[in-house]
């Protein structure tokens, strides 16, 4: 991740924003991080649908793999 001093960021702000990567820029003051600038479009919304057609589902997606009888007797039931 790119780091830049606050005074240098102030000088080059517009050009840095034009070339902003998805991971963003950390702005430092006296060598300590004080802010992080990230693009708005780098949120989770871009992930929705991005894997369509790239994955396959094997088996029943909603199954736990355990078979049980909901109407049968309980295993530890006392008579």
Give structural notes.
This protein is 16% helix and 19% strand. It has a three-stranded mixed sheet. The chain is elongated and about 75 Å long. The chain has a domain at 2-43: 3-Layer(aba) Sandwich (YefM-like fold). It is α+β, with helices and mostly antiparallel strands.
State the distance separating the first and last CA atoms: 66 Å
Characterize the largest beta sheet: strand count, sense, and whether it forms a barrel. 3 strands, mixed
Q: CATH class of the domain at 2-43, anyone?
A: Alpha Beta
Helix content: 10-25%
SSE map:
Blueprint lengths: L1 E4 H13 L6 E5 L2 E6 L42
Parallel strand pairs: 1-2
Antiparallel strand pairs: 2-3
Brief write-up:
This protein is of the alpha+beta class. It is built from 1 helix and 3 strands. The mean pLDDT is 84.
Structural descriptors:
79 residues, alpha+beta, YefM-like fold, 3-stranded mixed sheet, 1 helix, 3 strands, elongated
